[in-house]
Amino acid sequence: MKILVDIGHPAHVHYFRNFIKKIKKHNNQILIIARNKDVTHELLKTYDLKYVSRGKGGNNIFSKILYFPYAVFKILKEATKFRPDFYLSFASPYVPIASLFLKKPVITVDDTENDWLSHMFYSPFSDLIITPIFFKKNFGKNHIKINTLFELGSIHPKYFKPDKNFKKKIGLKDSENYVVLRFVNWNATHDINEEGFNLKSKKNIVEILSKYAKVLISSEGELPNELNKFKIKIPVDQAHNLLKHAALYVGESGTMAVEASMLGTPSILYSSLAKKLGNFISLSKEFSLLELCDNEDELISSIINIFENKKSKFMWEKKSLNFILEKIDFTKFLVWLFTNYPESKRQLLIGSNQIEKIDDKL
Length: 362
Description:
Distance between the termini: 19 Å
Strand order of the largest sheet: 3-2-1-4-5-6-7
CATH architecture of the largest domain: 3-Layer(aba) Sandwich
Number of domains: 2
CATH superfamily of the largest domain: Glycogen Phosphorylase B
Low-confidence stretches: 189-194
CATH class of the largest domain: Alpha Beta
Number of helices: 16
Helix content: 40-55%
């Protein structure tokens, strides 16, 4: 079996890397085509995953439009040589178009309801669309919702083993608390008309957090000079250890907010998107694993409440473990899906009761 996997973001490396390694053990072939976004290529190299680059992509609507035919042609060119049996991507608008020429099944996973531009391209041409059960949109008969989060593809306890010496490695004492503060660039298609921190609020929130713990900033873009001293530099494959050992995560990245919460770290998502997407809403309202804030007063109140409760970290760890134990192992699910396709698709489309039992088959 040959599978072409398209990766457009560092998070996608984590979603799929354990699946790729497991499926290759059974003499299957994988071709990874990856956008050169942030640390995507560096992550793939770190995990010893060979890939073909499809360039940097666009950072605004105009450059994204220009990039579209290039990306489609690049994927088509590589697919023509590789001759895949399947395509797999996270909400790629390019893969389904490129796949039309070879007429092989396209499996698309997605968890972002407001990414309407990508939906417009992939939904008509995907053979199967897979989303978490919390996803609020419905794409029709080929759409299934599974009881998991894609983040568990890498941070499920089966795959992620925390480094007990991590604090020492970044120059901190075991007793020293720190907060991870994350800023993003806001240039993805699902970020159109959305926002997070402005310059003033960035400085303000650093000042407030510094009263409780050491502040470590992770940022996609350049920081103002006065905040550069807070920037953390770690190996690209240590982001999950950074989140795991933190006393608190505060940031604009929804993926990192979910990862932190799954790792048992109190987590606050600060974004105009925070209260709009199904994963975030469910983790907040149903499981109390994520604080959602779309204004600064709300954010400050959440920070104070978490630090004033000395048992916050313990409570998050307990809640996250209970949550994970009730969820499908996403990596094993993908292995089962591809090795048993199309029978696996048929079983999934029979009804939701099959989805809940899928882990028993793996």
